[in-house]
Amino acid sequence: MRPMRKKTGAGFVWLATFLLCVPRPAAAYLDPGTGSMFLQGLIAVIGATLATVGIYWRATRDLLRRLLRRKPDSTPDGPARS
Predict the structure, then answer these.
(1) What's residue 24's pLDDT?
(2) 23/40 Cα distance (integer angstroms)
(3) pLDDT value at position 50?
(4) What's the pLDDT at 37?
(5) Total-model pTM
(6) What is the largest CA-CA distance in the chain?
(7) Cα–Cα distance measured from residue 17 to residue 26, given in angstroms and rounded to the nearest whole number
(8) What is the pLDDT along the chain (82 residues), one digit of tens a residue?
(9) Left if phi > 0, otherwise alpha if psi is -120 to 50, otherwise beta: which for 51?
(10) Residue 78: how many other CB atoms lie within 10 Å
(11) How far is Cα 43 from Cα 48, in angstroms, rounded to an integer?
(12) Any idea where the domains of the chain sit in the sequence?
């Protein structure tokens, strides 16, 4: 009985790697609107990131304030009388 060969897909991987590394000329065209679309996308990513950080910052700050809050020395009606 012959042992199984594990190199079944190795040739395909090498061929695909070679074809991806060979430079080919690109007939690409970027119209004038592409730059503004890129800029709008960048502004949207920055805005979404800032909003997300702000939400989590506020939640973390509120949690820390609740955990570190000292118990008041007086009652809600005023200072304790003795």
Answers:
(1) 82
(2) 31
(3) 97
(4) 93
(5) 0.46
(6) 98
(7) 19
(8) 555 556 667 788 888 899 889 888 878 887 888 889 999 999 999 999 999 999 999 999 999 999 988 766 655 666 665 5
(9) alpha
(10) 7
(11) 9
(12) 35-69
8 A C-beta contact, residue 36 and residue 43: no
CA 60/CA 52 separation, integer angstroms:
12
- Whether the CB-CB separation of 17 and 9 falls below 8 Å is answered with no
Q: For the residues of the chain, what is the DSSP string, one character each?
A: -PPPPS-TTHHHHHHHHHHHHS---------HHHHHHHHHHHHHHHHHHHHHHHHHHHHHHHHHHHHHPPPPSSBTTBSPP-
Cα of 33 vs its chain's centroid, Å: 26
Structure tokens at 12: 């395909």
53: amino acid identity, one letter: V
Q: Which pLDDT score is estimated for 80? A: 60
